[in-house]
Amino acid sequence: MIRALLITNPAAARTQARAVEAVMRTLRAGGWEAEVLATGGPGDAKRLAEYGVAQGVDVVAVFGGDGTTMQAAAALVGTEVSLGVIPGGTGNLLAGNLRIPASPERAARALVAARPRPFDLGRMERPSGVQYFAVACGAGYDARVMAGTLSEHKRRWGMAAYVATTLRLIGEIRSTAHVITIDGVEYDANAAMVLVANCGEVIPPFVRLRPGIRPDDGLLDVVVMRANSLGQSVRAVWDLLRDAPNPEGEDTFVGFATGREIRVETDPVQPVQLDGEPGGFTPFTASVVPGAIRIMVPGA
């Protein structure tokens, strides 16, 4: 029998008591022995996951958003305890990349049938301590969108809240000076946004960065986007989505690279995000931790 701890975040967008009860019924009907605990404030998810590890559970499942999920994941790095993901937040980027159903009850059914798979994480040293990301971190325009989207709007409108903020801020997009160091090699760039990706989709399944980005290859993928106007922003997004090289003689608005350790410095400083959560300001250094955790993946 699989022993599991379910961590819920009552403040997340879709974690009402009725949904929590449905998830627990589904886990127990699948033959799992499950306990449920709720977060009450910052850092609780990590502490509860540490409790689960100490109790010898097989799976720590998180019913919440990406922020709560990554707090719990930090406690599982280097352990044999697997992470289960039940999307309950706004973006649910990790769940989307794993093709976990949006419905909590269906996600719980998928979890019961899932198998653990090794999964890389990105690691970043911040003033508050070590932080991890599963999908992507970044500096610039995307971080401004994340920081500029109010929690009440996310709860009310879901992903549409991010779209509204994107449209509101797009007229302010500007490229600034960046120094990007990839595995010790330094590059100068003018960029409006720099993404360091572990997974291939930033808005699953609609926005794919490019084929071949995998969370189990021991590498991070760097995406650099340049834009100084609405027109250039549209062109940059088009270049990203079509995944085709620019014709000879045309400006390049999107560039790619891969590496194991990436440092990003900017002038002036830019906001930083990790899996859609605010992460302070530049500079930052992100490194890959190959096979950092095991995640329960449907169909694995």
Task: Write a concise synopsis of the structure shown.
The chain is an alpha+beta fold. It has helices spanning 17-29, 44-54, 66-76, 93-97, 104-113, 141-148, 151-157, 159-169, 230-242, and strands at residues 3-8, 33-38, 59-64, 82-87, 115-126, 129-133, 136-140, 176-182, 185-191, 193-197, 201-203, 207-208, 220-225, 254-259, 261-267, 271-274, 277-281, 284-297.
Q: Which helices and strands appear, and what pairs or packs with what?
A:
Elements: E1 3-8, H1 17-29, E2 33-38, H2 44-54, E3 59-64, H3 66-76, E4 82-87, H4 93-97, H5 104-113, E5 115-126, E6 129-133, E7 136-140, H6 141-148, H7 151-157, H8 159-169, E8 176-182, E9 185-191, E10 193-197, E11 201-203, E12 207-208, E13 220-225, H9 230-242, E14 254-259, E15 261-267, E16 271-274, E17 277-281, E18 284-297
Parallel strand pairs: 1-2, 1-3, 3-4, 4-18
Antiparallel strand pairs: 5-6, 5-18, 7-10, 7-16, 8-9, 8-15, 10-13, 11-12, 13-14, 15-18, 16-17
Helix pairs in contact: 1-5, 2-3, 6-8, 7-8
